[in-house]
Design a protein that fits this description.
The protein is of the alpha+beta class and 648 residues long. It folds into 4 domains: 212 residues, Heat Shock Protein 90 (2-Layer Sandwich), CATH 3.30.565.10; 134 residues, 2-Layer Sandwich (Ribosomal Protein S5, domain 2), CATH 3.30.230; 90 residues, Rossmann fold (3-Layer(aba) Sandwich); 134 residues, Up-down Bundle (Four Helix Bundle (Hemerythrin (Met), subunit A)). Helix content is 34%, strand content 21%. The strands form 4 sheets. A 9-stranded mixed sheet has the order 1-6-5-4-7-3-2-8-9, covered by helices on one side. It has a 6-stranded mixed sheet with strand order 16-15-18-17-20-19. Belongs to the heat shock protein 90 family. GO terms for molecular function: ATP binding; ATP hydrolysis activity; ATP-dependent protein folding chaperone; unfolded protein binding. It is found in: Cytoplasm.
Length: 648
């Protein structure tokens, strides 16, 4: 027995048990090696006129023997001589494929695409096998050789026979244990599943003998009571697709084919809303095929949802979901990226240089953004449906980046316009602003219908300004992070950013000089009344003041607004969180409409010295304003009793 040419026991143990995290990839590695062997022979036929070989003669075959507990991967490739077998299999981390690739670097391309790099993939076999035999016959040689090892100390090489050139790798699987079930690799279904998962797009046919059932011919003398009989048979079947759909020219693929690929590979029963095909050449050459789904998966916003695109290298699956290829706000995009330029790590499960991924991801992000903008501008109905499904994620993208991503995402957002009574973009809102409006007004709550009736919304609309009605919990946080929005300036124009203002926040600056003066006079005249109302409400409000937004007898008698960074809607959302404390309180202000008849009643009670009535009415107005805002009142029983007392 020959010893492995290295610190074999330690390094081989590292190869088998430490480098790979998923043992099922052993089949991917063996098929990739077989593909390289076939590629080498095909390359020889292209460069050596004495070698006559058709590409359709080259294939890879996978088989299993359940009784003998073996899995075999065979190829009709270039094969190995005894010396090559000793060098390639006896020296751990020596890659014959990498050596071939380096010697023929100019020939890499559509005809030849060598996968191997590190010379360790073969040893992944020992994750599942207690013995590995390799039978190989080099092209043009009459001799065949067998390499055999248990993966512990060393290996033997002996002369054998093989019909035709190529290589057979025969794995004798380990016995099952309580923790490990190796029988999963001794079934037709199990092997086909692994081939389709990892090696579906290897460029050569991967065949298997597959079991099938067919009906026997009906005997000529069968009577009327004849029951059909069936027989089992086997048939050689090509398991892999070979040519990936993302490598084919867009002109050669129909949308129906893209749809079927999407539904099959990403387990969706609906066609995608959009298909994005990318082919890039240059410093990084890659192909990408991405899909924007037409509906949101049920777990999109759960902690178990994992974003990412399937990452392939030379048509071999490396990662099912590479998270680095998508920003969180485009987590709904599905698809694949394939590049032969990726610098993989030794296990081919992750990458050595994330800068490569970042470069690809940045370009893909621009493509996705461009496709969404195109849908927004040219197919508004489809875009509104998309935004209904995925718009929340775009808003979170702005909020979670503290507004840094607003330049990339803000123009994709849609909000309901109270004036237009439809969804509009921020650009459309700005375009429709009357002259002199310098802020974008919005209201946040749980429904468009309730928000449209709120006094603070009506007050702004009465001034001739539109209000965006925001009904998602992230809306307020998104706008707080954005702070402002400016429509991109045309050439020669100066960029101007409009401040975003919640209509239930502090001073909106919409009152005229006359209205401001009237409010100041009313506040001065009723200073004692407001002091008494504040005393009655205690810590529930920061202050009681005359409203500059409720300015007519037809407006509501009072409203609640908030000063400071924490709005009423943010308070409501934060207070519903599991770990919310009692200190989550906005700086509430009770604004009184000085033009409403109730204000005269309050003044009369204060002048008559009826402190109990003033306190009772203050509580009624405050709780009434809370209900209008959709916020809970602290003492519903007391409120009900106050209403009942008024009805006596």
């Amino acid at each position: 027995m020959k010893k492995f040419k290295t610190e074999s026991k330690k390094l081989l143990d590292l190869m088998i048990n430490s480098i790979y995290t998923n043992r099922e990839i052993f089949l991917r590695e063996l098929i990739s090696n077989a593909s390289d062997a076939v590629d080498k022979l095909y390359f020889k036929s292209l460069t050596d006129s004495d070698v006559s070989l058709a590409k359709d003669e080259l294939a890879i075959h996978v088989s299993f023997d359940k009784d003998a507990r073996t899995v075999t991967v065979s190829d009709s490739g270039i094969g190995m001589t005894k010396d090559e077998m000793d060098k390639n299999l006896g020296t751990i981390a020596h890659s014959g494929s990498l050596e071939f690739k380096s010697e023929n670097v100019e020939a890499q391309g559509d005809d030849v695409d060598i996968i191997g790099q590190f010379g360790v993939g073969f040893y992944s076999s020992f994750m599942v096998a207690k013995e590995v035999r390799v039978v190989s016959r080099a092209f043009g040689s009459d001799e065949a050789w067998e390499w055999k090892s248990d993966g512990i100390e060393g290996y033997t090489i002996s002369e054998t026979t093989r019909e035709g050139h190529g290589t057979d790798v025969i794995l004798t699987l380990k016995d099952n244990t309580d923790e490990d079930d190796y029988d999963a690799y001794l079934s037709e279904w199990g092997l086909k599943n692994l081939i389709k998962k990892y090696s579906n797009y290897v460029r050569y046919p991967i065949t298997m003998e597959c079991s099938k059932t067919r009906q026997k011919p009906k005997p000529e003398d069968a009577g009327d009571d004849y029951k059909p009989e069936y027989e089992h048979y086997t048939e050689t079947e090509t398991i892999n697709s070979m040519v990936p759909i993302w490598k084919r020219s867009k002109q050669d693929v129909t949308q129906e084919e893209y749809n079927e690929f999407y539904k099959s590979d990403f387990h969706d029963f609906s066609d995608p809303a959009r298909t994005i095909k990318v082919h890039a050449e240059g410093a990084m050459t890659y192909d990408a095929l991405m899909f924007i789904p037409s509906r949101a998966p049920f777990d999109l916003y759960s902690k178990d949802y994992k974003k990412g695109l399937a990452l392939y290298s030379s048509n071999v699956l490396i990662m099912e979901k590479c998270e680095e290829l998508l920003p969180d706000y485009f987590n709904f995009v599905r698809g694949v990226v394939d590049s032969q330029d990726l610098q993989l790590n030794i296990s081919r499960e992750t990458l050595q240089h994330n800068s490569q991924l970042r470069a690809i991801a940045k370009k893909l992000e621009k493509k996705i953004k461009g496709e969404l903008a195109n849908m927004r501008d040219n197919d508004r109905e489809a875009y509104e449906k998309f935004f209904e499904n995925f718009g929340r994620g775009l808003k979170y993208g702005i909020y979670m980046s503290y507004g840094m991503n607003k330049g990339e995402l803000a123009d994709l957002l849609l909000f309901y316009s109270a004036k237009e009574q439809k969804m509009v973009t921020l650009d459309e809102y700005v375009d429709a602003m009357p002259e002199g409006q310098d802020s974008i007004f919005y209201a946040a709550g749980d429904s468009v219908e309730r928000l449209a009736k709120m006094p603070v919304v009506k007050a702004v609309m009465n001034k001739g300004y539109d209000v965006l009605l925001c009904t998602q919990d992230v809306d307020e946080f998104c706008f707080q992070a954005m702070m402002g929005y400016g429509k991109p300036a045309a050439e020669g124009e100066e960029f101007s950013e409009k401040q975003l203002k919640n209509v239930a926040s502090g001073d909106l600056g919409l009152e005229s000089e006359d209205e401001k003066k009237a409010a100041e006079e009313a506040a001065k005249e009723s200073e004692d009344l407001f002091g008494a109302m504040k005393e009655a409400l205690g810590e529930q409000v920061t202050k009681v003041s005359v409203s500059t937004r409720l300015t007519s007898a037809d407006d509501a008698p009072a409203c609640i607004t908030a000063e400071g960074p924490l709005s009423l809607e943010m308070e409501k959302i934060l207070s519903q969180m599991p770990d919310a404390g009692d200190d989550i309180k906005s700086q509430r202000v009770l604004e009184i409409n000085a033009k409403h008849p109730i204000f005269a009643t309050l003044k009369a009670a204060q002048e008559a010295g009826d402190a109990e009535k003033v306190a009772s009415y203050a509580g009624l107005l405050y709780n009434q304003a809370l209900l209008v805002e959709g916020m809970p009142i602290e003492d519903p029983v007391a409120f009900a009793q106050q209403i009942a007392s008024l009805m006596k």
